[in-house]
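User: Could you check the structure of this?
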Amino acid sequence: MAKQRGTGLANGQFLVTADSADLVQVEGRLAKAPAFWVPWVDRKKTCERIEGHRVVVRLEAISHVRLLGPSRFLMTLDHEMIDGQILPPPGTAGARGSAGG
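Assistant: Sure, the predicted structure tokens are below.
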């Protein structure tokens, strides 16, 4: 359990690679309800290394909305630029991946 109940804090877990402790996924329930009408939110962020930068590529959230029931949100991110560096389109030769380490 989180020692504090901030809106950005969550009770959950991190998934990292065994060889390099590279962050792959963060998931858990928000420690504090964002609003009276939304008593809980479970979220999962999936990360990848693109051109040497660790970035979020997928965000999923399931929340309970009072009187309406569960609500699901899914967002995938396709990065065109990171830190001012324009990235090659996905699927092209040498695009993305773990270049730079």
